[in-house]
């Protein structure tokens, strides 16, 4: 909970990937708040007040996930909203501002994104969603102790760089700095 709040303010891409992990963890514990309290919350939180706050946060997530039918797959509405904002920002930087640096990053990543999209049967997802899925998959592979080859690592890196660029622009925008929307002359 505290990590999610910090990431929401400081790095929106890390927030999304962290929350994907939280969703999967809730599913792994079969939405059982007692198991989550015992195995996740208590080892991390030393204060009873913070523990109760964390339990409340997880209970809210559990309720939302169950009410939206996310027991097996899918993502919280709040994550969908963030992804939508990032897609709008992506489209603005690409099509309206025609940000040369961003366009170069997209060009460098395009082949890798398309390849991951095909291998993972994600053709219905927007490029930005595919980048998130790819980086989350990479995290899961690392958590499972599986090695990521150099070629795959390089492909993931092109997607990471796109999300890093978008993250910086997103936080600038949220802070009221609209300089990224200035067309280069």
Low-confidence stretches: none
- Distance from first to last alpha carbon: 44 Å
Radius of gyration of CA atoms, rounded to a whole number: 18 Å
Beta strand count: 0
Fraction in helix: over 70%
SS summary, helix count: 8
Summarize the main sheet: none
- Number of separate structural domains: 2
Order of helices and strands: HHHHHHHH
Average pLDDT: 94
Tell me the fraction of residues in β-strands, as a range: under 5%
Q: What would you call the shape?
A: globular
**SS-derived structural category:** mainly alpha
Notable traits:
185 residues, mainly alpha
Describe the structure.
It is a single chain. By secondary structure, the chain is mainly alpha-helical. The chain has two domains: 2-67, no CATH class; 77-181, no CATH class. 76% of the residues lie in helices and 0% in strands. The mean pLDDT is 94.
Produce a short descriptive summary.
The chain is 76% helix and 0% strand. The protein has 185 residues and is mostly helical.
Produce the secondary structure layout.
Blueprint (H helix, E strand, L loop, with lengths): L1 H9 L1 H17 L4 H12 L3 H20 L9 H20 L3 H20 L7 H17 L6 H25 L11
Helix pairs in contact: 1-2, 2-7, 3-4, 5-8, 6-7, 6-8, 7-8
């Amino acid at each position: 909970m505290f990590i999610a709040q910090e990431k929401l303010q400081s790095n929106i891409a890390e927030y999304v990937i962290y929350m994907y992990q939280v969703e999967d963890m809730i599913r792994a514990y079969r939405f059982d708040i007692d198991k989550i309290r015992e195995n996740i919350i208590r080892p991390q939180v030393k204060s009873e007040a913070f523990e109760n706050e964390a339990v409340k946060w997880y209970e809210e997530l559990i309720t939302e996930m169950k009410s939206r039918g996310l027991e097996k797959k899918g993502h919280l509405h709040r994550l969908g909203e963030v992804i939508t904002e990032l897609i709008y920002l992506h489209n603005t930087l690409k099509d309206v501002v025609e940000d040369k640096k961003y366009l170069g990053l997209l060009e460098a990543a395009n082949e890798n994104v398309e390849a991951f999209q095909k291998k993972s049967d994600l053709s219905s997802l927007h490029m930005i969603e595919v980048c998130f899925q790819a980086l989350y998959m990479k995290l899961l592979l690392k958590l499972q102790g599986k090695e990521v080859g150099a070629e795959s690592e390089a492909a993931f890196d092109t997607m990471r760089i796109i999300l890093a660029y978008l993250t910086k622009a997103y936080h600038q925008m949220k802070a009221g700095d609209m300089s990224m929307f200035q067309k280069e002359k």
